[in-house]
């Protein structure tokens, strides 16, 4: 090694600085120095924008933690709200105003009063009962008894449990739900008996009020002749048929729903649905005057 160095010194004896700068600095110092500079710059450059960003993020996270500390307070507020809702029975509010009065004043509700009037009935069940002059209410068994219809002298039959007219029924292929709670007699069943027939499918809808006017008109028209007798029936004769008769009393006999019920329970056992009573009350309050003027 000494011989080689001596050889180079002799060969490049005039420029000693060059080989020293070429050999020693180029191999060791220049390359690591820029690398060290770059490494020094990169960490100094990367953290500089990131450190202020990370610090606010940490601050925001700390602020979120403060919000998390408030979560129990929110739950406590919700619990307070629940407690307030439970106390709304004492302090009326917009949400409790609807259900609370119903529970506390249910005995004063018109439908409740009408139902109590119905429960006051002391009559026993009969298959057919005369409820008005030449007006009878009965069940399906009586309606299918043609001989019984002749004995009573019935000229008009109002079937409150008629089957709803559908294509499959007209084709003779009714479903079980179409036949349930219905009396499928029809006008042909009374052929040759000189009976006017009217069928209303009241059992296939909860809105029986849409049949109040047709039923009342049929009964009222039949009553124009004093010799005519009307038979109103459904399956059992205590629900749908009496409801239609009550509508007739309200519309054409100018009775209130209370007076109509009080009269009917004295002559026949009835058990109309409470929703039907509500619709009768609406008939009296809203449409009675309009219906009477149209009739």
TrEMBL record:
Transmembrane segments: none annotated. SMART domains: DSPc. Residues 126-289 form the Tyrosine-protein phosphatase domain. It comes from the Eukaryota. One of its GO terms (cellular component) is cytoplasm. GO terms for biological process: negative regulation of MAPK cascade. Residues 86-105 are annotated as: Disordered. Residues 210-268 form the Tyrosine specific protein phosphatases domain. InterPro entries: Atypical_DUSP_subfamA, Dual-sp_phosphatase_cat-dom, Prot-tyrosine_phosphatase-like, Tyr_Pase_dom, TYR_PHOSPHATASE_DUAL_dom. The active site is at residue 234. GO terms for molecular function: MAP kinase phosphatase activity; protein tyrosine/serine/threonine phosphatase activity. Belongs to the protein-tyrosine phosphatase family. Non-receptor class dual specificity subfamily. This is Uncharacterized protein. It comes from Culter alburnus.
